[in-house]
Design goal:
CATH architecture of one domain: 2-Layer Sandwich
Structural class: alpha/beta
CATH topology of one domain: GMP Synthetase, Chain A, domain 3
Strand content: 15-25%
Shape: globular
Radius of gyration: 24 Å
Strand order of the largest sheet: 7-6-19-18-20-21-22
Number of helices: 19
Bound molecules: 5'-O-[(S)-ethoxy(hydroxy)phosphoryl]adenosine
CATH class of one domain: Alpha Beta
Helix content: 25-40%
Distance between the termini: 49 Å
């Protein structure tokens, strides 16, 4: 890397080999963004070409109108000619002694077709929603692709989510089929996933449950309802034609936390998402035929959809998925995986980087990371210390470190400097992807200049992969994204500023969303979960800074009955794990007598947060119960 002031640029050699190395692309895309995306779309295979690039009827819009495409034809069939015997997917299981499974493009193609045929036999048709509740095993990739092949809409639910969280998603989408597994490995133990799945399908329309045999743990199979994956696919043919899908047909629904208690189903469509996943994976990760791409994200999250599945396949790359935790059983497991498979592109979250750093450089001894070409970060702001450590210890100060900003809603990365162009700057996510127009707005929608923090918004024509709807909830779609600045401006809900070079730094959320270890959670969602405990009268959850996880939730609860602090903590943790999952376990739970409120009864979460930041509490006289703050302060300090 070449350093100029506080900016880094790629080396001449890197530049020479990169797909995109001329910054003229930005000007060109800016002149006609719709044509820019159309040109990228032409690199893919379509059954029928679109007749209009972009149509806008605020707050709705369409891309590649009347085009017909199937993402799997582009991800699989298209690669058969040149890459038939090239590894597409490498699966690293958690147990060290277990053998990896590798699928060539041809093998993956066949497995997808077999499972697609099995789904058809189970009665799944185009447009039907299929729930997928699977850990990071090859079958999760096969299942997603099989759905897409026949035009079914996949609804992936993170395997560490609770049965309640699964239940909400199955109910909302009315899925008739669920694909799950007996269990999977986590820190050496087998997690009984089937038990959760059985709970999760109660009071839903699920008629059939396909179960992958993964961990061989004993499970109950219900006759007539539950079917083993392995038995189901055995008899199926490995040929299944991809269904032509309209550009605007649904490809998948992925639920994410919004500012209120209930998660929202983000709707992504076939044409726009495919183009977005293809173009961003290729240009940002500079994927070529000899690349081995590893994104550590679970497919339960959007990063897993776009970059642990579709993106690398659309580029014909080889990609790695890993069942376990990057630091298990030893803190350098991730480093071993990089070296074992010669990973060239490593994509992870700042939380993971801080965790690696915490274990110390002694775990890096002997790891040269010679194969790495690009390292990248996603999901939460990366602090300067983590950026520098990542750049120095893993990137060896030679490789571009891409900080990539995007959201479940955007479908793909929207802000990051391109590796063959730069510049890269610690803590800054960089320049918007070509063709995108972002602004930072202040009060009353005023455009802000350099170094002024405001709300980050995206202007038309947006990006092809941006969500088209909140599933079955047009009101929420309008209110969440298209209200703050009118129906023509997409509000990201993030706070950001630009430096004088136009590089964007995303500071954090403007709403109640927290990023806990890169996972998206809201305080409202957690409060609703806690409030289901009958003993609790009221509660407030706030996100505070955390050294490793970026942010961590803290819960304050008022209990109806007198109980020990330990008992209350136990109940609250139980409730959160039951309703959401272990990722929602709070860092602390405080049982208090009263929560600070305004005279109109609004809980002042801001004051609670300040108890942890050391900031001045400010004027408390407007509170209805200012005495509560002193009491809480005493408890927190203790
Ligand atoms: C945050 C994850 C700073 C942001 C792909 C966004 C980031 C939310 C970055 C979306 C980044 C994501 N720097 N903040 N590079 N990437 N975020 O839906 O607040 O899980 O709105 O998508 O994560 O989280 P989601």
């Amino acid at each position: 890397m070449i350093k100029k002031g506080n900016l880094y640029y790629p080396s001449e050699e890197f530049k020479k080999n990169a797909w995109i190395n001329n910054k003229a692309i930005y000007k060109k895309a800016e002149r006609n963004p719709v044509k820019f995306w159309e040109d990228l779309a032409k690199e893919l295979v379509w059954f029928k070409k679109w007749n209009k690039g972009f149509v806008h009827k605020p707050p709705y819009f369409q891309w590649f109108v009347n085009g017909k495409i199937n993402i799997t034809q582009n991800a699989l069939d298209r690669n058969l000619e040149k890459r038939k015997d090239k590894p597409a997917l490498i699966w690293e299981p958690e147990p060290i002694k277990e053998k990896a499974r590798v699928f060539t493009y041809n093998e993956l193609f066949k497995e997808v077709n077999k499972f697609a045929n099995a789904l058809k036999k189970l009665g799944v048709k185009k447009g039907d929603r299929v729930g997928i509740y699977l850990p990071m095993i090859p079958e999760v990739i096969i299942a997603m692709l099989a759905c897409a092949r026949i035009g079914a809409v996949h609804v992936v639910v993170f395997s560490a989510f609770s049965s309640r969280a699964l239940n909400i998603r199955l109910q909302d989408t009315k899925a008739k089929i669920l694909i799950t597994a007996d269990g999977y490995y986590r820190k050496g133990k087998v997690i009984d996933l089937k038990k959760n799945a059985d709970q999760g399908i109660k009071k839903t329309e699920v008629k059939k449950v396909v179960v992958v045999k993964r961990a061989n743990n004993p499970v109950k199979m219900k006759m007539g309802r539950d079917l083993w994956w392995q038995e189901l696919v055995e008899k199926e043919s490995d040929k299944c034609e991809p269904v032509p899908m309209d550009s605007e047909d649904l490809l998948f629904i992925l639920y994410t936390s919004g500012s209120t208690g209930k998660p929202k189903g983000c709707v992504h469509t076939c044409g726009g998402y495919t183009v977005q996943a293809y173009a961003t994976a290729k240009w940002i990760f500079d994927l070529k035929d000899d690349d081995v791409f590893w994104s550590t994200a679970d497919v339960g999250w959007i990063t897993g959809h776009t970059y642990s599945c579709y993106g690398p396949l659309l580029s014909g790359a080889t990609f790695v998925i890993f069942e376990g935790l990057p630091v298990w059983p030893e803190p350098d497991r991730w480093a071993d995986v990089i070296e074992k498979y010669g990973v060239t592109t490593f994509y992870t979250a700042p939380t993971a980087v801080r965790m690696f750093e915490k274990y110390g450089v002694k775990f890096l001894k002997g790891h040269k990371f010679d194969t790495l070409q690009i390292i990248a970060s996603v999901g939460e702001p990366i602090d300067e210390a983590a950026w520098k450590w990542y750049f120095r210890e893993i990137g060896k100060t030679k490789r571009p470190l891409l900080d990539t900003w995007w959201q479940t809603e955007t479908g793909g990365i929207l802000i990051t400097s391109l590796p063959g162009i730069g510049p890269f700057k610690p803590c800054f996510t960089g320049l918007p992807f070509p063709g995108l127009k972002f602004e930072i707005l202040g009060e009353k929608g005023k455009k802000l200049g350099p170094n002024k923090e405001g709300n980050l918004v995206l202007l038309p024509p947006f990006n092809p992969g941006l969500l088209r709807a909140v599933y079955k909830n047009p009101k929420k779609y309008l209110k969440t994204y298209w209200t703050d600045y009118g129906k023509r401006i997409y509000f990201t809900s993030d706070r950001a500023y630009r430096d004088k070079n136009g590089l964007i730094r995303v500071v954090g959320r403007a709403d109640d969303v927290m990023k806990v270890a890169g996972h998206r959670l809201t305080t409202g969602e957690m409060e609703s979960a806690i409030a289901l405990d009958k003993d609790i009268i009221e509660c407030a959850v706030v996100g505070i800074d955390d050294e490793i996880k970026g942010q961590a939730p803290i819960a304050f609860v008022v209990s109806k009955v007198k109980k020990s602090q330990d008992q209350i903590i136990k109940q609250v943790v139980f409730q959160l794990r039951k309703e959401i999952g272990p990722i929602a376990t709070p860092k602390q739970v405080y049982s208090v007598k009263d929560l600070p409120k305004t005279r109109s009864g609004k809980i002042m979460r801001r004051i609670l947060r300040k108890l942890f930041t050391g900031e001045e509490l400010g004027d408390l006289s407007t509170l209805a119960n200012s005495g509560s703050v002193a009491e809480i302060k005493k408890i927190v300090e203790k």
